[in-house]
Amino acid sequence: MAKIVYITRRETFAAAHRLFRPGLTDEENYELFGKCSNPNWHGHNYTLEVVVAGEVEPETGFVLDVKKLKEIIREHVISKVDHKNLNLDTEFMKGLNPTSENITIAIWNQLAGKIPNGKLYAVKLYETENNYFEYRGEE
Ligand code: NI
């Protein structure tokens, strides 16, 4: 039986977005997306949690160095979303409606294959304190 440890790294970022479907009027988008469809943008303070799962390496006592995990998340995600407009500025969100669901999947895709030890287990995104969105890869 493998002894699996789950490591969570938390980061925060602030970003602007607008939820909308092209081709719908502002009123129709408001019906679908509420305040998040404001044509002149608005922001959220997001909290991101990245969970890596793996076995402890006997040589180091680590699954992976948490400092390295922090650097990977900052390089591939935070630097591309913090104080950005997710509709306009963030390459990995191009063509996606920036709902929390879509942001969560896109962040997973950004990190997939970049974790040197252990494996990416979950990406959790909090848009407010009261709800979070979690993705664990394709099933
Ligand atoms: Ni919003």
Number of individual domains = 1
Gyration radius (Cα, Å) is: 17 Å
Fraction of helical residues: 25-40%
Structural class: alpha+beta
Distance between the termini: 23 Å
Q: Give the H and E element order.
A: EHEHEHEE
Cofactors and ligands: nickel (II) ion
* Spatial strand order of the main sheet: 3-1-2-4-5
**Averaged pLDDT, please?**
97
Largest sheet: 5 strands, mixed
CATH topology: Tetrahydropterin Synthase, Chain A
Q: What best-fitting shape do the alpha-carbon axes yield?
A: elongated
Number of strands: 5
| Percent strand | 25-35%
The CATH architecture designation is: 2-Layer Sandwich
Low-confidence stretches: none
CATH homology superfamily name:
6-pyruvoyl tetrahydropterin synthase/QueD
CATH class: Alpha Beta
Number of helices: 3
Sequence-ordered SSE layout with sheet pairings:
Layout: E1 4-17, H1 26-33, E2 42-55, H2 66-81, E3 84-85, H3 100-111, E4 119-128, E5 131-135
Parallel strand pairs: 1-3
Antiparallel strand pairs: 1-2, 2-4, 4-5
Bound molecules: nickel (II) ion.
Overview of the molecule:
The protein has 139 residues and is α+β, with helices and mostly antiparallel strands. It has a 5-stranded mixed beta sheet. The mean pLDDT is 97. The two termini are 23 Å apart. The protein has one domain: 6-pyruvoyl tetrahydropterin synthase/QueD (Tetrahydropterin Synthase, Chain A), CATH 3.30.479.10. The longest helix is centred in the middle third of the chain and has 16 residues, at 66-81. It has 3 helices and 5 strands. The chain is elongated and about 60 Å long. Bound molecules: nickel (II) ion (NI). Nickel (II) ion binds next to strand 2.
